[in-house]
Amino acid sequence: MDERMMEEMKTLGFSAYESRAYLTLLEEFPVNGYALSKSSGIPRSRIYEVLKNLIAKQMVFEEEISKARVYTPMEPEIFIKKLRARYEKIFDDLTQHAGTLYREPKQDDKLVVIQGRENIISFLKVLIKGARERVAVSIWDEELNALTCELDEAFDRGVKLRGIYFGTARVYKDLVPHRRIKRYMAEKKERYLSVIIDHAHVVSGIVSRGEASKVTWSRDEGFIEVSEDYIAHDLVVNLYSASLDKDAYKKFEEFADRVHDSFFHYSETDFKRFRELI
Fold it and tell me: How far apart, in whole angstroms, are the C-alpha atoms of residue 224 and residue 227?
């Protein structure tokens, strides 16, 4: 273990055990608490307390594999970007050291749960700051406003914004407002969010429950593809409906309601009616 790196991480506010656990995880993961204790030299009586602290700081993620709790480190690139927002020192050294331990993700199909609205917004800000080509969203006003600064900076870098939003103040001309916003705002008891960065990251879940908000972050290609298809489908429906005249729009919405009701609330009779609509 590089003692100089340990001291630099302590300068950033991490304890000796937190630093040792994170740097050890970069070399080998996912591992359980016992294995991490053994390889890092952290006493077993302290290892789970240390991991709990790292999870709270979003430096380590916990998941269950084959009924065992195992731990995976946050990718160094994202971890460092988060710290850079608060500190302006020693990052070149830390980036170089972390990069030698963690050159490539060892698995891209993991699904990581992030809890707490503030943590979710903070994580999205980091991802958007790293965007290079496109940010795709399905988002409500509250979350869009929280990310305005990072999105504006992304525009200045030439990043494109695409998607749909649920709100009344049209902040970005490239976002399409949902056609049934008044109905959605009256009916929906939760705000959902889906954000896709450069077809490389997707963050999706519920963001209206404060500290109980929960989203899933993944780099899995299948999950990203499904999420992008969902946003693209919403765009097609809303843009098409907006192109219709008054009578055609009314017929379209009545048709959409019948399909919706047949799908979510169907009996056998409803199902036959649903088949007839196809």
Answer: 5
